[in-house]
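User: Can you predict the 3D structure for this chain?
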Amino acid sequence: MKSVPFLLTLTALALASFIASASDPSPLQDFCVAVDEPHKALFVNGKFCKDPKLAKAEDFFFSGLNVPRDTNNPVGSNVTQVNVDLIPGLNTLGITLARIDYAPYGQNPPHTHPRGSEILVVAKGTLYVGFVSSNQDGNRLFTKVLKEGDVFVFPIGMIHFQFNPRHVPAVAFAGLSSQNAGTITIANSVFGSDPAINPDVLAKAFQVDKNVIDKLQKQFWFGNDN
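Assistant: Here is the predicted structure, written as structure tokens:
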């Protein structure tokens, strides 16, 4: 009979472990609002699957990532994401590839990927990169100057950036741990939202005069994501 409490404890721990590890599938878009009538649904969490018997090599193929992209824009960079929209075969596989071109002194401005971590390798030139940890970690800044062949990781959800500090172009390639990692560019989202965030809210948040916020909200915010 002495073994009964032990068995009960073991069972309780097993149940607690199961409950702790159970979770919903990770979202693959910003939101997925439930509907009661299926005929009103547009898509599921991700993409619908083709009949496997109808799959062909082209579903898993993309060409042209060797071609330099135009960086003649306000931020001096161009991001080409090869995600599930370009390679249907990526659906459910949880990966994405991207090419990032940087003009001299161009940058991929501070942004975050809400649904994926990123691993970046410099193929050409030099990059100053970094990410900022969460409030709970004290908003620590982690930075590194990367040269050709160097690799850096940006953890999921962390605000991060890349900057080309040289007078020559740079190129990097990045892998992300989601078929649709999403991108939230901080300045664009805060000052270029539609509709605009109440400037009183932003003035208090950034502790600046409301006229500064008004000016920022009126300017055009360029998106370098393709």
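Strands lie at 77-82, 96-102, 107-112, 118-124, 127-132, 141-146, 151-154, 159-163, 170-176, 184-185. The chain has a mean pLDDT of 87.
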